[in-house]
Structures are given as C-alpha cells and as structure tokens.
Amino acid sequence: MMARSDFRFSYPKRVRYSEIDAQAVVFNARYLDYLDIAMTEYLRAAGVPDPGGAEGLAQFVIARTTIDYKASIRLEEVVDLCVRLVRAGRTSLTFAFEFHGHGKGEDLRALGETVQVHIGADRAPSPLPDDYVALFERYEGRSLRA
After folding, report:
1. CA separation for the pair 90, 32 (Å, rounded)
2. Strand boundaries in the chain, DSSP class E
3. Does pTM surpass 0.85?
C-alpha cells in the first residue's frame, strides 16, 4: 500500500445498481471494470494519443492483474480510483492502483497491480517506445526505468 498522496491521478466513480451483488456491495468482478475505467482516464490525463489504441499507435495487452479487497464498496457510494505508473521495463509497464472512499483520505477499499506488455504487429512482446516512456515520466514527474 502506498500513501494516497503518492498517486498523482484519481478519478471519482459512483457505484450504480447494476454493479452490486445480492449483499448490496460491488460485485468482485466489477473491480476489473473499475480498473479499466481508471486506466483509460489515466492514459487520457497523461496525454496518450487515443487511449483506445487505434491502429498505428502503441498496443498493450494485460499480462497480469492482482487485486486485494480491503473493505466493501456500496451502492451510490463514490470511490476515487487512483492509478500510478510504478515502473517501465524493457517491454512492460507496471501500474499500481488503489480505490478509496471519495474525499475520505486513506479509506482504502482495494489495491493491486497490473502489468501491461507492449506488443508489435506480430502480437509478440516488443520494446517500449522511448517516446511513451518519456511521456509517462513527464506526467509522473520521475524516472520510471527499472
């Protein structure tokens, strides 16, 4: 777990009825949806051209995601989806994420990590483009190379 202040980026998300389970809390699989929303908004905020990855731009696939559930998120609650790029490897980017109660400081609900691998036209791992790493380093304000 990182300090909330370690995350430059956060995105507020209100829980909808379709996202809860029979216990009236967010269904566990929806946390991956929340991560997808957070990642898309992070990429947009960082200045990635077309975060959807149109043809001709850098393409990434998710190689691994881990989630640790800490406390329930309930219907109509607003949570802050926090994302931070932790490091840039030769072919991959490692992101940390945390979900917190909105405006509640260190009210941690879930945390985890996702590794995304850059792929070439042949769908095989490919070295990260230097311009992408530079873009993320500018956004994060620090060196990201492992």
Report:
1. 25
2. 9-14, 59-69, 78-88, 92-101, 108-119
3. yes
